Write a sequence for this structure.
């Protein structure tokens, strides 16, 4: 599909490097007052009041995504969103991104344009400026690197290390969907490879597939918490899996925790598809990853402020220093949590 | 050489992702007051007085470097330095870097440690903090992405667009060496492939090889200009080639220029090796790239401040809007400048 065998497609090397960058970034007009200078010089110039937040991530074809079922526009969108998620996980506002792209000549210009359409859409959706990056060729495949910047709240960034004993553990949205979306897509791809005339019906899986292909970062939750005047004591985003992220908070805050299996928020479609695949929904929810929900702790006194909010679920509480992070099962057994999240190696 | 066939080497996948990151970044203690929080959370937290400068670059195996003659420690050093160079090219001070690395399992842990040794050395040499990054596997080869941050001078960043007619065009150091260093290394590598017992004698080429393998960013020139109270009107670093960079300044400042062939600073070793390779030294100096010297313009009134400084050479002057960027040859011919710099595609 992506091989440039069609004569109507434009080979990438027909443009020079500078012309390509100009072409791809011409719609990257900047709109934030904190962007003093965007693309076009040796570096971008930003003016952040207070603290600057910065994070970077790399996405590698064949490791982080499979172009057999990840459309390029979605890939561009997701690459930006997962980086913005890291900024929101500091309680901060995302303001700028830089996107670097290495791409082999098997991709025509039109494919790279699709990718950038997703990048621009994510920037527009989240109100961030694209202020820089790099575009180069690769020997094989597609590699993306995104750096996101933001501004911390005046009260300071929310770290992983601020949780105390008795703080409540809260998660936004629901968990595990992105992983099961990937399982559905991988299954359909296997069927397609065996029978290229197969038309997949993804309708019964639409929520899960969207969680995988078009995740959203919880900018809205940061705003919500500000409106509710709740300042989380610690926070992290769920990229590797709930279990792994809970353990990060515990380790860096030097506390234990009790996570209640029956409190973990699961979408009905997720539960159904886990049954269809004969997978245990709790195991997937704990280990699945890529949900980009926010996991945070709050003081018990703030509970009434968030109680009943459909976006937020209390799933446990932090325990004393020296205690283990543990899962309380539906059978009321207490078992140690294990990090079984996604592994890059 | 890099294949992990030796049982004494440690496979990368014997560590988990988090243990690997911990291992590689444990020596990344931060020392700048502007680094509020370094590696270990969702993002780094920085406190920059005034404007923040940010730039990012990707380095791809087989495109930007060849591990047959680029030792990994040098690669790590160079990857950081070329990004810092972009920060200095804004007249700014570099303060922090983030480094992302994708690496296939053919690299043992010891190879990645070598790479990080170079990254840490560059950070130490330039006084910048390593505050973040990402480490992941790749399907093939090694991909590096570096983001550098810095702080602009109070008078504002020096842009490419600030040159005016009659401003003097100045370059630091000497030009073309990095490209000829690459030619020497590539030739020795061909000889080595034909005869693996061949012992290369790089001594006569030591300066050029060092320019290629261990380039330095001109932090010292930024300090020098501050000491001399010279504020450049425009500036760029020489990554793609002198000719290409001169044309960037002209285009973005909307002026022309006259560049004098006989003024271009060349090292004697560079001239000798160009003769040995039967290459025209001016052509190489104009098109070579990767020198990471600074190219800038100053007001004529500042000439006396820089006159005679061995680090700085006036190589031309800017001409009126609408005139062409041109080269005045030794034969006093005036010919249009062409950008023949390094192409990524």
């Amino acid at each position: 599909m992506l091989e440039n065998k069609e004569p109507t497609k434009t080979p990438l090397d027909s443009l020079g490097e500078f012309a390509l960058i100009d072409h791809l970034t011409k719609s990257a007009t900047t709109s934030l007052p904190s962007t003093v200078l965007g693309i076009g010089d040796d570096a971008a110039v930003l003016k952040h009041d207070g603290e600057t937040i910065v994070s970077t991530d790399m996405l590698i074809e064949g490791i982080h995504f499979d172009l057999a079922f990840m459309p390029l526009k979605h890939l561009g969108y997701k690459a930006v969103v997962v980086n913005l998620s890291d900024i929101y996980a500091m309680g901060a506002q995302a303001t700028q991104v830089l996107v670097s792209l290495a791409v082999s000549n098997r991709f025509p210009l039109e494919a790279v344009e699709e990718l950038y359409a997703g990048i621009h859409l994510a920037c527009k959706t989240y109100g961030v400026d694209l202020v820089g990056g790099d575009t180069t060729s690769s020997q094989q495949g597609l590699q993306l690197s995104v750096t996101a910047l933001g501004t911390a709240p005046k009260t300071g960034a929310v770290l992983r290390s601020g949780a105390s004993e008795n703080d409540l553990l809260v998660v936004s949205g629901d968990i595990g969907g992105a992983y099961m979306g990937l399982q559905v897509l991988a299954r359909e791809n296997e069927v397609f490879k065996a029978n290229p005339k197969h038309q997949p019906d993804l309708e019964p899986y639409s929520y899960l597939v969207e969680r995988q292909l078009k995740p959203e970062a919880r900018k809205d939750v940061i705003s919500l918490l500000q409106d509710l005047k709740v300042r989380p004591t610690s926070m992290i985003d769920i990229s590797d899996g709930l279990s792994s992220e809970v353990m990060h908070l515990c380790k860096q805050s030097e506390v234990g925790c009790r996570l209640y299996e029956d409190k973990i928020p699961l979408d009905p479609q997720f539960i159904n598809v886990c049954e269809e695949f004969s997978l245990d929904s709790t195991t997937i929810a704990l280990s699945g990853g890529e949900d980009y929900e926010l996991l945070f702790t709050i003081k018990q006194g703030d509970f009434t402020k968030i109680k009943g909010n459909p976006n937020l679920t209390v799933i446990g509480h932090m325990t004393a220093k020296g205690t283990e992070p543990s899962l309380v099962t539906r059978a009321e057994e207490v078992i140690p949590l294990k990090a079984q999240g996604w592994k890059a190696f």
The two ends of chain A are 28 Å apart (CA to CA). DSSP finds ten helices and 13 strands in chain A. Chain A touches chain B through 71 residues (CB under 8 Å). Chain A has a mean pLDDT of 92.
